[in-house]
């Protein structure tokens, strides 16, 4: 599978807005939702459709419905900021949750919570994390989904770096990755440069 950069003018415009350290919590949260909606619109172009017959006020015709159910999997806590925008676009989706924190010394992800809807193994799943930095949390999330029998997995991150992308591709080469922007590098504290800071703190006003 491949990495895709969604080079859409609206996405680039909105990413620039949330990079600005003057962007407040309310505006940051709203723009993340908007970016997420635009990203999922672009990343669902290949969803399978099943034809069905419908009756319009004029006549019968053939329409189309999504073949697979859709499940979004936000990585707590920052991934929660991406859920509502996508729910607006696909109201019928289900939401799984994976909770992880990063060990301050090893920088490795530590799983503390996982809850999945029934039948997720048959669904098209989207892992949500605004920032793809080291890739550790997303790799663990993919592994947890595969343990549940999930095969159709896509990663959505607003900003990422090649270091994390390459790690994911090495361990899970069958997963598509969609980014709003590919940034330069990670700094010594594993933060994305230029990035936008800590997405969770900025979404929830905790710093």
General description of the model:
This protein has helices at 9-19, 25-43, 83-89, 136-147, 162-171, 199-204, and strands at 3-5, 49-55, 60-66, 70-76, 94-95, 97-102, 109-115, 124-128, 131-132, 152-160, 176-182, 185-186, 192-193. The protein has 207 residues and is of the alpha/beta class. The protein has one domain (3-44, 76-204): Rossmann fold. Strand 2 and strand 3 (60-66) form a beta hairpin. The model has no long low-confidence stretch (mean pLDDT 94).
What is shown here, in short?
This protein is α/β, with parallel strands linked by helices and 207 residues long.
Q: Would you tell me the structural class of the helices and strands?
A: alpha/beta
Number of helices: 6
Strand tally: 13
CATH topology: Rossmann fold
Tell me the major beta sheet.
Answer: 9 strands, mixed
**Dominant shape:** globular
The residue ranges in which pLDDT falls below 50 over 5 or more consecutive positions are none
Order of helices and strands: EHHEEEHEEEEEHEHEEEH
In CATH, what is the class?
Alpha Beta
Our measurement of the CA-to-CA distance between the termini, rounded to an integer number of angstroms, reads 37 Å
How many distinct domains?
1
Please give the radius of gyration in angstroms: 17 Å
- Oligomeric status of the shown chains? single chain
**Helix content, binned percent:** 25-40%
The overall pLDDT, averaged over residues, is 94
- Residues in β-strands, percent: 25-35%
Q: Give the name of the CATH architecture.
A: 3-Layer(aba) Sandwich
């Amino acid at each position: 599978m491949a990495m895709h950069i969604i080079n859409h003018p609206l996405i680039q415009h909105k990413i620039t807005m949330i990079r600005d350290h003057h962007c407040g919590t309310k505006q940051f949260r709203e723009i993340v939702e908007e970016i997420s909606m635009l990203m999922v619109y672009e990343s669902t172009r290949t969803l399978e459709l099943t034809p069905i017959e419908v009756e319009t006020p004029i006549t019968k015709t053939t329409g189309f419905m999504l073949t697979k159910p859709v499940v979004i999997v936000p990585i707590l806590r920052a991934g929660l900021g991406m859920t509502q925008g996508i729910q607006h676009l696909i109201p019928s989706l289900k939401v799984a949750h994976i909770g992880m924190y990063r060990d301050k010394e090893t920088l490795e992800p530590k799983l503390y919570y996982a809850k999945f809807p029934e039948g997720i193994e048959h669904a098209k799943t989207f892992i949500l994390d605004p920032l793809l930095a080291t890739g550790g949390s997303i790799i663990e999330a993919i592994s947890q989904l595969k343990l549940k029998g999930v095969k159709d997995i896509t990663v959505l991150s607003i900003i990422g770096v090649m270091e994390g992308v390459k790690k994911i591709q090495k361990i899970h080469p069958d997963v598509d990755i969609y980014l709003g922007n590919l940034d330069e590098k990670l700094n010594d504290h594993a933060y994305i440069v230029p990035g936008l800071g800590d997405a969770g703190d900025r979404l929830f006003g905790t710093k």
